[in-house]
Specification:
Layout (H helix, E strand, L loop, with lengths): L8 H9 L4 E2 L3 H14 L9 H22 L20 H28 L4 H26 L6 H25 L2 E2 L4 H18 L13 H30 L8 H4 L3 H17 L4 H4 L1 H25 L10 H12 L12 H34 L22 H28 L1
Parallel strand pairs: 1-2
Subcellular location: Membrane
Protein name: CSON001609 protein
Main location: membrane
Length: 434
């Protein structure tokens, strides 16, 4: 795309050999959601491309983000004291729309693969497209759900760590597949998605103050914070470690050397480090001044890192040692956290740091969109398919038999005549012998 190639020949050859290998051990998923999705997919026409279903769900998530941001850009709508005697900035119908959109997006994400199998269009592009958009949705959902709790009693610093925990949980699944060759779907994923939908429904019916009222001396936001911190380590991290260990022990995985096996953790670890440094040590406390942009920047960087890992694990190639988008991010963090006063230098102004995060977020977002679009176009060219269109199977054309020429016909006629004479002679000879 625009003369830039993101996929090498090794990537494309790896995609040619790729076979989907996934294990879902969730009781809720297998006994509740999959039967529901099997019913839903029958309502979709076969000409509807699976990737179009996936993208539609992603657009609903983006719509939720902008809708809630329009009413609560700075995450202050949950301030009960501020809005005690006046209407809440976020109308209740917004939460209803957000809940419905999220459930529809979740459903579409569950049936896109089933639609691909119905239409016979399953391909590595579909899986990459699905998981790549999911990597972006992970942080986006966290961001707009933050408006439920607000920044007054739940600081942006705490929300930053919650966001990191969410993206790490998502990344661990693909890190596991990178080493084992098998995707073990997280047990808690379906429970979390349904819980978020129910949370939005309760907010619509009861109001946002449900999350700022203590129950048995505990705020709901405190319960959710503990749940989000503990769900990953309890339900998936140790399982990932066990599965990777078993794949090496039984020699069923990729058997990568240690340095190559842990390589995906390097860019993710650096992302968590530099964003946390910026959040904690910014001279202008930029995470408090621009929390939404800060979270969007972190989520976009994560999505780019994760998409590159997905490409590597699907094509069975080593992943990148580092992510190029982290270089400009590190430079901005250095400017934002440098101790200017210790060196008798003029301190970086808040306006300047705002421009830094504005420009950096725009740069990272455009670069990530270019990468995603470029990879999709290259895979479409390689597999000779259309991303958002079901390519019909070409019928086998009937090729009429060639009409022999006159000399050939004469030759065939002579052969037939000689054959008949031979058979008659043989038959007469047999009679005479008898």
């Amino acid at each position: 795309m625009f003369g830039i190639k993101y996929l090498t020949e090794a990537h494309l050859k790896g995609f040619d050999k790729y076979k989907y290998n996934c294990i879902d051990t969730s009781w809720f998923s297998n006994n509740v959601m999959h039967p529901f999705w099997n019913k839903c997919v029958k309502f979709f026409p076969r000409w509807l491309a699976p990737n179009l279903i996936t993208f539609s769900g992603f657009l609903l998530t983006i719509f939720n983000f902008f809708l809630i941001a329009f009413y609560d850009y700075d995450f202050e709508a949950a301030d009960y004291e501020k809005y005690r005697n006046e209407p809440n900035p976020i109308p209740r119908w917004v939460w209803m729309v957000a809940g419905v959109n999220l459930f529809i997006a979740y459903t579409l994400d569950g049936i896109d693969g089933k639609q691909a199998r119905r239409t016979g269009t399953s391909s590595p592009l579909g899986e990459l497209f699905d998981h790549g958009l999911d990597s972006y949705s992970t942080s986006i959902i966290h961001i707009y759900m933050y408006s439920l709790f607000g920044r007054v009693d739940f600081s942006p610093i705490r929300m930053h760590f919650i966001t990191l925990m969410g993206v790490v949980n998502f990344y661990i699944t693909h890190f596991e597949k990178y080493n084992t060759g098998v995707m073990y779907l997280p047990i808690a994923y379906d429970y979390v998605m349904c819980s978020v939908c129910l949370s939005l429904a309760f907010t619509t019916i009861i109001g946002p103050w449900i999350w700022t009222t203590k129950y048995f001396g505990i705020l709901p936001r405190q319960f959710f914070e503990v749940l989000l911190y503990s769900s990953g380590p309890i339900t998936s991290w140790w399982v990932t470690g066990r599965n990777i260990y078993r794949s090496y022990k039984n020699k069923t995985g990729k058997m990568r050397p240690f340095g190559e096996a842990v390589r995906p953790l390097v860019p993710l670890g650096f992302l968590c480090f530099i964003t946390t440094v910026w959040a904690l040590f910014s001279v202008n406390k930029i995470v408090f001044d621009q929390p939404r942009l800060f979270f969007v920047l972190t989520g976009t960087l994560f999505s780019n890192i994760c998409c590159r890992l997905i490409v590597a694990q699907m094509s069975d190639t080593p992943t990148d040692r580092f992510n190029a988008l982290l270089y400009p991010t590190a430079i901005c963090v250095a400017f934002g956290c440098f101790p200017y006063s210790s060196f008798n230098l003029t301190q970086l102004s808040l306006e300047t740091e705002r421009w830094l995060i504005y420009l950096l977020t725009a740069l990272v977002t455009l670069a990530h969109l270019h990468y995603g679009a470029g990879v999709v176009c290259e895979m479409c060219d390689h597999f000779k398919i259309r991303c958002f269109k079901v390519t019909p199977v070409q019928p086998i054309q009937h090729i009429p038999a060639a009409i022999p020429s006159v000399p050939v016909l004469e030759s065939m006629e002579n052969q037939i005549t000689h054959s008949k004479i031979y058979k008659r002679t043989t038959k007469i000879g047999s009679i005479l012998i008898l």
